[in-house]
Design brief:
This protein has helices spanning 17-29, 46-53, 79-84, 95-100, 105-117, 130-134, 138-153, 178-193, 212-219, 236-245; strands at residues 6-10, 36-40, 59-62, 89-92, 121-126, 161-164, 204-207, 226-229. By secondary structure, it is α/β, with parallel strands linked by helices. The chain has a single domain (6-245), classed as Aldolase class I (TIM Barrel). An 8-stranded parallel barrel has the order 1-2-3-4-5-6-7-8, surrounded by 6 helices. The protein is globular. The model has no long low-confidence stretch (mean pLDDT 97). The chain binds 1,3-dihydroxyacetonephosphate.
Length: 247
């Protein structure tokens, strides 16, 4: 099956009003793209991104959301709020949040559910640490992480985007080889096939040191449908080149 590719820029906690404007206009100026393109800026910049990208065909999203609808949850942002700002996506379960904020598989699954309840597509991140890979646990770790979300979403599981991001490849310059990434993507696709009739239409992204130089060989793999890009998403030229590689 040919699936349309998706390239998402995860800006993490980077950016400023003065840096964002040229980055967004650089991405805009390089339209049209033959893949779907989205950026996920920090929350304070979402409204700016929404204004800049309105009617452009480009999409935007948040980097996290609360499991709660509203209430006394200082510092949290709900999926409903993201929907109000036109977010098409929200990243949930990024390894930085799992590690630095002790997010469990169960919590990540609830976040994915909250997102879908407001029409925001969750980009669910899964991935193993270096220690887990070296001890042969890659498959069991990613399956465990994905399984929690599949169960929580039940008949809506086919609506999520999954991003395989090996923790050891994030921000390290060490990319998984296309074959290593494909191997895990195939495992995830098989797990999704057992859960939803939409599995073959679902978008599975790879993330971890994706650069213009390695994007094409990653995108050539059968089950890699695009990328979740960190560092290279902060430079318009690099991000655009990755989007071009997906086309
Ligand atoms: P890098 O592309 O900087 O390795 O980050 C990947 C990532 O974590 C995207 O979510």
């Amino acid at each position: 099956m040919t699936r349309r590719k998706l390239v998402v820029g995860n800006w993490k906690m980077h950016g400023s009003r003065s840096a964002n404007a040229p980055l967004l206009s650089g991405i805009l100026e390089s339209r049209p793209y033959t893949c779907d393109v989205a950026v996920c800026p920090p929350f304070p910049y979402l409204s700016e991104a929404a204004v800049a990208l309105a009617s452009s065909g480009l999409r935007w999203g948040g980097q996290d959301c609360s499991v709660h609808e509203q209430g006394a949850y200082t510092g949290e942002v709900s999926a409903r709020m993201l929907a109000e700002f036109g977010c098409r996506y929200v990243i949930v379960g990024h390894s930085e949040r799992r590690a630095l904020h002790a997010e469990s598989d169960g919590l990540v699954a609830e976040k994915a559910k909250a997102a879908l309840a407001h029409g925001v597509t969750p980009i669910v991140c899964v991935g193993e640490t270096l220690a887990e890979r070296e001890s042969g646990q890659t498959e069991s770790v990613v399956k465990r992480q994905l399984s929690a979300v599949i169960h929580a979403l039940a008949h809506c599981a086919g609506e999520m985007v999954v991003a395989y991001e090996p923790v050891w490849a994030i921000g390290t310059g060490k990319t998984a080889t296309p074959e290593q990434a494909q191997e895990v993507h195939a495992v995830l696709r098989a797990q999704l096939r057992a859960a939803t009739p939409r599995a073959d239409a679902m978008t599975l992204l790879y993330g971890g040191s994706v650069k213009p130089e390695n994007a094409k060989s990653l995108f050539a793999q059968a089950d890699i449908d695009g990328a979740l890009v960190g560092g290279a998403a902060l430079k318009a030229d690099d991000f655009v080149a990755i989007c071009r590689a997906a086309g």
